[in-house]
From TrEMBL:
A motif (Histidine triad motif) lies at residues 97-101. It comes from Harryflintia acetispora. It holds the Pfam family HIT. GO terms for molecular function: catalytic activity. This is Histidine triad (HIT) family protein.
Length: 113
């Protein structure tokens, strides 16, 4: 998608601090971190939100979670981490591209603020 910031990051048109990349996904540190460790994992294919997942593309979610586990081991996040997916305006989604935030290295309260 031409105007999607995450598509541009995935294409290398906008720089990012990349942690992991393969043919299907990209992981990079958040530009405005909310925890000492805060990175995002996105599919390279444009999927607007969780609401656009279906039988043809939902396997990307399991792949993303496998990547998160791999990164968590690499970053020694043994004490825990939180995975967040915001969906739609009321869910707090600000970028119209499916993405998962991973936050760690501080105690995360519940419910979130």
């Amino acid at each position: 998608m031409d105007d999607c910031i995450f598509c541009k990051i995935a294409a290398g048109e906008i720089p990012s601090n990349r942690i992991y990349e393969d043919e299907r996904v990209l992981a990079f540190y958040d530009a405005a971190p909310q925890a000492p460790v805060h990175f995002l994992v996105i599919p390279k294919e444009h999927i607007g939100s969780t609401n656009e997942l279906d039988n043809s593309n939902s396997s990307i979610v399991s792949h993303i979670f496998e990547v998160i586990v791999k990164i968590a081991k690499h970053l020694d996040l043994d004490n825990g981490y939180r995975i967040v997916n915001n969906c739609g305006d009321d869910g707090g989604q600000t970028v119209g591209h499916l993405h998962f935030h991973v936050l760690a290295k501080r105690r995360l309260a519940w419910p979130p603020g």
